[in-house]
Amino acid sequence: MYFTATATADGVTERLFTLDDVPGVLWTPADAGRPPGAAGGPLILLGHGGGQHKRAPGLLARARRFVAAGFTVAAVDAPGHGDRPTAAREQRYAELARRVAAGEPLADLMTRENAELAAVAVPEWRVTLDALLDGGHAHGPVGYWGVSMGAGLGLPFVAADARIGAAVLGLAAGAGLVEAAARITVPVEFLLQWDDDVVPRAGGLALFDAFASAEKTLHANPGGHTAVPAFELDSAERFFRRHLSRADPR
Q: Which residues contact 105 (CB under 8 A, 6 or more apart)?
């Protein structure tokens, strides 16, 4: 893991890094007496949505909120996004648009697209988590937050990595994700938009039902795919407070 830049503002230290050509960012509390970038509270990993990147405005605001609550936060650019080569992604999106125009369901196409990306992204997330924990940049327990594509890639990651102790997921559906959800037993908070114009309601409900978690909560709100209420950020913070120890080993 190679850190390329460091900046501190409003009580948050942000460090950009690369790991095996995967660009990422680590946010930690800028506490007095703590070396820049030293591990703060438990780690939350953030997965961004399709067409976005590790420092998209919504993701950045969420990261800063979680750091203010005492957590350490990290995100990486998904394959074909952000500072990674984007030509292949642009070609795939053009093909998606063509097929949607021809009448194919967008939800089905996105499910297949996310499954292809997850085959690359899940191993990358696991290597990134190794580097963050083994390098002393973060400590567990670990949470994961991701909706839409962030759930499409994050859900199989949570299913595959026992170090993830709690997850906020949502705005996703698909048979492959149902299979992954059946292997997840950690606490889950799941977001569903009742009038989602991308993910069919029935698919989202089926995915929530598939989680094997003894503690799982469905948050269903009116509105389309991008209309998740701002107060869900408050709920996510409370969820991670409940399920991740906030002890600081400093």
A: none
